[in-house]
Amino acid sequence: MEASFWHNKWEINQIGFHQDETNHLLIKHFGQLGLNKGDRIFIPLCGKTVDIAWLLSEGYQVAGAELSEIAIKQLFEELDITPEISEVGSLIHYHAENIDIYVGDIFNLSAEILGQVDGIFDRAALVALPTEMRRRYSSHLVNITENASQLLICFEYDQSVMKGPPFSIMSVEVQQHYVAYYKLRLLDAPNLEGGLKGRVEAIEAIWLLQKPS
């Protein structure tokens, strides 16, 4: 899947994947990460998610990575925050108190640039990527975050009925990506009310991935 696909979505404002409310599974299960106020949460492929505003309001720092600068300009406008903007290699860094967003290709984001990560919330990254790119992404995420614990949301549905994104990712694939680095636990798997895009019945599964003790 080419970067132009996502750039076009933002340019024409075709962002049905954007949620207007904080993700209910994040609110319900965030405490499972066992973090402290002030810890830094990384949100890969964050868009302008309102989950960021919720995390900031709860007293956490937020870091994010996003391909579209349109999305990040809108994010800071909606947060009513004026960021400092600079270039870091091939990435554009938007910075303000308690928030750092890196705009560009996430595969160009290194551990050194990203800095400390205490936890990860992946709602829209793994599910947005085609199969071959998911393998590359999951390995990269582990490397740049030193396999920080994460909450991961996946959809499970009949992909013969509807093509992604978001793609269907079953539990066996989650295991394939992450079992070498984490203890995995399925926290919740409710039916998605109204189905996925109103077109296919789906389960919205949330996983807790923790560093082995």
Description:
- The chain has 213 residues and is an alpha/beta fold.
- The protein has a single domain, classed as 3-Layer(aba) Sandwich (Rossmann fold).
- The protein is 28% helix and 25% strand.
- It has a 9-stranded mixed sheet.
- 38% of the residues are buried.
Q: Identify the CATH architecture.
A: 3-Layer(aba) Sandwich
**According to CATH, what is the class?**
Alpha Beta
Secondary structure tally: strands: 9
Low-pLDDT segments, ≥5 res: none
Instruction: Summarize the main sheet.
Output: 9 strands, mixed
pLDDT averaged residue by residue: 92
How many structural domains in the coordinates? 1
What layout of secondary structure does this protein have?
Blueprint: H1 3-11, H2 24-29, E1 40-44, H3 51-57, E2 61-66, H4 69-79, E3 84-88, E4 91-96, E5 99-103, H5 111-114, E6 119-122, H6 131-145, E7 150-157, H7 171-178, E8 183-188, E9 202-210
